[in-house]
Write a structure and sequence with these properties.
By secondary structure, the chain is of the alpha+beta class. It has 3 domains: about 70 residues; about 120 residues, 2-Layer Sandwich (Beta-Lactamase), CATH 3.30.450.40; about 220 residues, Histidine kinase-like ATPase, C-terminal domain (Heat Shock Protein 90). Helix content is about 55%, strand content about 20%. The strands form 3 sheets. Strands 3-2-1-6-5-4 form a 6-stranded antiparallel beta sheet, with helices on both faces. The chain has a 5-stranded mixed beta sheet with strand order 8-10-11-13-12. α3 packs antiparallel against α4, α4 runs antiparallel to α6 and α6 runs antiparallel to α11. The N terminus is likely disordered.
Length: about 475
Amino acid sequence: MKKTGFFVAGVCCSYVSMSQTKLLQILNEPHYWWPISLLLIALLLVFLFNYYRKVVSLKQQETRNKELEIYKTAHYRHQLEMEQVINYFTHSIYSHHTTEDTLWDVTKNCISKLGFEDCVIYLVGSGRKVLVQKAAWGPKTTEENKILNPLEIPIGTGIVGSVAETGKAEIINDTSTDKRYIIDDQQRFAEICVPIIQQGNVIGVIDCEHSKKGFYSQSHLQIMETIAALCADRLQKIAADTEIRSKELHLASLKESLAASQLTALRAQMNPHFIFNALNSVQQYILSGDVDQANRYLTKFSRLQREVLNHCDQHFISLEKEIEMLQGYLEFEQLRFSENFNYCIFLENNIDPSEIKIPPMILQPYVENAIWHGLMPGQGNKEIRLEFSLTNEHILNCTIKDNGIGVAASKRLKQNNINNGQHPSKGLSLVSERLKILEQQYNQPFRAAITDILDNDNQVKGTCINLQIFIGDEI
């Protein structure tokens, strides 16, 4: 065709090179008409051929563009479907907090979301070179999430064992031609097997089967490898969280045991301290020959001590019981000091003392200190007042007020007693240590503050002890 084009072009050029007169003479000659006709036909054929080629080329390009668009649309649709499936599995897998729940969820969703007929997850047995079925969905499962006749496969045996050994996923289009295939509950002809890998080590295998030969595609493989990776990451996170919780529980148990031992030891120290003071008073009555008063004192003391012993092994008792013991103690001390002081106990109306729990014998040392080192060294009418109120629903506020000599004078008196050979009182230091341990153990306020009560002229007119005690649900 190219030669024809060159021929036509040459002819045209020869005619063009002629003069106009010569050309008209030639055209008027009849025997020259047939070459001109051939030339025109040739030109028309060339034009039609080029036009046809262009039309065909455009149609082919349009067809290719349509096929490309169809391919892209199908590819995007496929990618979208894969992303939706993977997003669903991601959300579902990370919504569970135990290994068992996670594995059962994966097997169930492989059936419902991917159209598989059977899905089983194996994990490598602890300390053994064997794969153990941990979750399954299909004919082998029951409504109670239990596997019927669970199978164990040695690593390296069968398709599942081979994948566990090599760490490489496999698609078997026809299991009847693969000698490694192990029949579990029934024969199926297509199988996809994907390893679950953590830090380079195979910890399990996801094995899915279908009755149709060649059912599984590369898209299935891509999805299953992603699911296996998600599963591996989640199992690792669950194992780490479980270990952390175990250590936290162990540490909390140790702290609780330590705190309980410390509190028990402190209470054990407080009881002899209290008994020592009481027996000293009995001794004074006996030495003075006042047997009746000694008997009354011993009766009060034995009743009070019985109450103390009944509650000494408890970490918390009701405020009602604590107040009963305080009343017994105050009556005991009134008898001891020949009713040389008065006391009163006041509770706000919104307090139910039977419902509030506080540490036992937490107030008695402060009351004792107020009587012995605040009231007794003073002159005139001696009074002590106990007030209970709620700072909020979780904090009990206990206030002990006396009209004694005040904090500074009390400290000087104690120091003089020590200098004169008397034993220092350990009651306040022991209860302070108890409060400190309780605050550390519960991470809640257990505090005491001791201040002077001043009159308008800034003169000391007594002492105020304020205790904040946590009474929340954690107690």
